[in-house]
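Q: What structure does this chain adopt?
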Amino acid sequence: MSDALFDQLLNSQQLVIAMLRIAADDPSARVGAWDLRDIAAHLAATERDCYVPRIRSIAAGQNPTFDLFTNDGSDFSGIHLDDALDEWIATRLMLIGYVKTLDGEQRALIGHHERYGEVTVDRYLEIALVHDQDHLRGLEKIAGELTR
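A:
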């Protein structure tokens, strides 16, 4: 894998954050059942509680098996939007830095995911990118409505 995926992860994160900030002044801004704080906290928690430990487990050669991760039922009410975004930024930078230290053999090791089948470190980063993009689509709708 080239640095392209790392760049895509950082760029998608920046876009999501920009969309969250555009709509942050509108207390009614929601994507489905979630307000903007919930979305930011969900993204930070997913990076911290899912992507980081799972990628580390794969790279350690543990041949792990993963179920579908969800934190949809989590209570994010005590978390501030900016704090969640700061955590998400820091965790993503740490994760990318970690993956850059891995050699090709470590990045080719696999885990097994109930939805995605065999997953390597790189494949899990691609899953993270798709997750970003899913949230970005919902946020783009909000931003579009606010700028009309």
